[in-house]
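Summary for the lay section of the report: proteins are chains of building blocks that fold into shapes. Here we show the chain for Cobalt-zinc-cadmium efflux system outer membrane protein and then a coded description of the shape we predicted for it.
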Amino acid sequence: MKTKIALLSLLGLLLCGSALADVYSLDQLLELARSGNRGLQASRDAVEAARSGVTTAGAFPNPEIEYQSGDAKARVAGANPGNVKTMTFTQRLDLPWVRSARIDAASANLEATSAAGRGYEHEVLASVKLGYYEVLRRQAELKAAQEDQALMEAIRTRVSVRVGVGEAPRYELIKADAELLNAQKVTQSTLLRLTQAKAALRRNVGTGLPADFEVPATTQLPLNVGSLPELRQTLLQRSPDLAQARAQLTQAEHQLDLQRRMRTPEVALKASSDEEPDLKTSRVGIAVTIPLWDRRSGPVGEASANLSRARNLLEQMEFGLGQALENAYQQHQIAAAQVNALEQGIVRQAEAALKVAESAYRFGERGILDYLDAQRVYRAARNELIAARYELRAAAVDIERLTGALTAPAQEEKH
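The coded shape description reads as follows.
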């Protein structure tokens, strides 16, 4: 009895809180994630840093000015002591072919960082959609569990009356009590799973989503995702993961080109002026860095290995994403078939059998065990339908994530 009272109190608090909580649709949750998710903001900061890197790559080297001053002392007869000054100006030349390669490498890094940001955004939005559908699933399970509990309470009351007047044996009341306790336990567990699902969804959306929120209940399911060949073509064209891998490959190519061009000797213009007590000397010349000991074999080899690595990763990703898309498509087809079978046949038949068993029990034609068995079959079929709907939605989200179709909320329709 204490457990029952505690459970009813918990459910009452939940219902009161639900009445006061703000309701967020899927579109609103996705928009909140775009604006409030700190991970997305960090990825945008990384893009800005890479954009500044392009500016840095295009900057010309600053000149160097060196000034020295001292005293000259006569050590031989006839020498003039006095103040000595030296000023030197050095300007390193930015060779055009090296400069262009450096800018190209920085631009490729910007593109790779932008592609990584888009890929991360797709991952976040996919997590939000999955979290939203997880909350819908747990809400449906909680509603079903509450209905089961209310039904078992009514059955228990009815059985108690029949046992009290001697129309039913004592074991029927024991069985009804056990079923009621089990229904209460299921309701408690489902309520905790709903709380956990909401916490996970809020973690993905960000701090813009209040701790106390609700999502509208719906039975809508995703539209047809299309054929597998069409999805494969979309994958190759729009996949954010492939876009990132291709950008990283281009970046590695430009980096290798830059390291090879940097083998060219560096050249700097130099001008100096020396003032002695009796002389003033001016000089103009060039300084050339001779690549005698360091031929940049290390940086070139590293860039070459990174290029090979990027090329192999791109090929592996194309194959892996293709297999993942095929698996997601097959999962979607299986889940769609399960939803159709459950909605059109199994659940309806189980519900009809439950009604027949209930009527037979009321008129004394069947015992409580037959009625509870029928109810158990219906409950299992209904829970399978709830799970199948979630699996169908999850497979559709996985397909959207792989093919890069999460830039806008997916359209939905009722089955």
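Put simply, here is one thing we learned. Residues 2-71+81-413 form a domain with the Outer membrane efflux proteins (OEP) fold (CATH 1.20.1600.10).
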